[in-house]
Every structure is written in structure tokens, then in C-alpha cells.
């Protein structure tokens, strides 16, 4: 019974930003749990992730496009439904980061970060949610938030604002859709070994400061987040709504 609660066989998923890093790990984990997975990337090929999904006996295809483009958000959902027939699981993972002092942060960077990291989550979730509501069979939406959904960060004002918005948007959608069997939750990864943290990990002083505060005494890996994504996408999480799950090695508890 417990094992069946994590079984995603027959479910169709879309994972944005899934050609590498956290998104790729989540897409592969969903496939291992039984789901077919649509792989998305802005420009790079999704061949690697699609191959890993196919090797696990699941259907997959690649969609290329810029998630910051509002018109592409609807196309993303429409293509997934056209390919698979339904969309049962949405993982809003795509995003980017740009660092600069707040006093010098450009309006161009601000607008791009908000579009890519927050507005896209609203738009893709809105289109996916409409489909799930029309089908009346529920669904799962998992947003990738951040520790900066809770903290302000340094040199990343737009990223912090966007990720704070993702946490609140998660709760707002959950309040409306929980009654229809649509679970909307979020994962707040801690300091992960991804491209976004390369600059921090390359700075010996900053890296040491970060590791000294993490009770687990290590940087997280994409696989650490993938398990949480499978859980929140599965029947095991049917009574969890509007929650932001920190996967941070204990950072927030310090």
C-alpha cells in the first residue's frame, strides 16, 4: 500500500527547465516512478534527459522555448497535452539568476528575472490548472521556490523577490484549487551543486561560510530535491496543499 502511494504509472508530467541540474534530476526521478515526461529547455537540446527518460520505458519529447515569453507558456502546456493527451503533473523548475548590488541592479535584469522566475510560474500553472479543472480528475503542481522565499539574500534582489512571490503564489493557487483535488505545493532547495551556485562554490571564503552553517555539512545535490518532487507529485501527498518544503540540509533550522 505504501509503495503504491508513490507510483506514478500512467501519469503525464511536464518539467520546465529540465535539460540539466535540478530539472533533469526531477524529470528522471518522475520517470523512474512511472510517469511520462515532457522535457523543456530554453535553447539547448533535451537529448540527454529524454534519453534517460526513454531508458526507463517512459514516453518523452522535448520542447524548446523561453519561459520568460508569456505567449510561450500557453504553448508549453498545449504541446504537452497534444503529445500525451493529458497533463497530470507540472513541475515549475525553470528560472535564472543575475547578481549585482541593489543600488546598481538594472531594470532590464529586474524585469527579466521577474518574468522568468515568477510570471512564468503563474502563467504555466494557470494554463495547466485550467486543464486539470476541466478534466475534474485532480492534478499535482510543484513549484521550485528557494531559501530566498524566506530570506533576503545578498546581491540578488530580483531573485529574492521572485522566489518570495513563488511561495505566496503557491499558497494562493492552493487555496482555490485544493477543493478540486489539485495539489499545489513548492520545494525550497537549499544550497545545491548547480550552475546557479557555481560562483559561490568557487569562492573559498563564501563556500566555507555556507558549509559552516549547514547542519548536514555538505552542499545538496539535484537528487536530494528529486525525491521530494516525486513525493509531492504522488498520491502520498494527496492531503498536502500550499506547503513550501525546505530541502536544505537543515539551513533554516540553524
Give a concise summary.
The chain contains 8 helices and 7 strands, in the order βαβαβαβαβαβαααβ. With 254 residues, the protein is an alpha/beta fold. A 7-stranded parallel sheet has the order 3-2-1-4-5-6-7, sandwiched between helices.
Write structural notes for this entry.
The protein is α/β, with parallel strands linked by helices. It has a single domain (4-193, 222-248), classed as NAD(P)-binding Rossmann-like Domain (Rossmann fold), CATH 3.40.50.720. The protein is built from 8 helices and 7 strands, in the order βαβαβαβαβαβαααβ. It has helices at residues 21-32, 47-55, 70-84, 107-135, 157-177, 198-201, 204-213, 222-233; strands at residues 12-15, 36-41, 60-64, 89-92, 139-144, 182-189, 244-247. A 7-stranded parallel sheet has the order 3-2-1-4-5-6-7, sandwiched between helices. β4 (89-92), α4 (107-135) and β5 (139-144) form a beta-alpha-beta unit. α1 (21-32) packs parallel to α2 (47-55). The chain is globular, with a radius of gyration of 17 Å. 45% of the residues are buried. The model has no long low-confidence stretch (mean pLDDT 96).
Labels describing this entry:
single chain; 254 residues; alpha/beta; Rossmann fold; 7 strands
Annotated CATH architecture: 3-Layer(aba) Sandwich
Instruction: Assess the beta-strand content as a share of residues.
Output: 5-15%
Radius of gyration: 17 Å
Report the strand count.
7
Distance between the termini: 36 Å
- The fold-level CATH name is Rossmann fold
- Per CATH, the class reads Alpha Beta
Biggest β-sheet: strands ordered side by side in the sheet? 3-2-1-4-5-6-7
Average the pLDDT over all residues and give the rounded result: 96
DSSP helix fraction: 40-55%
> Structural class from helices and strands?
alpha/beta
* Relevant CATH superfamily: NAD(P)-binding Rossmann-like Domain
Whole-number count of domains: 1
**What is the N-to-C succession of helices and strands?**
EHEHEHEHEHEHHHE
Report the biggest beta sheet as strand number plus sense, adding barrel if it closes. 7 strands, parallel
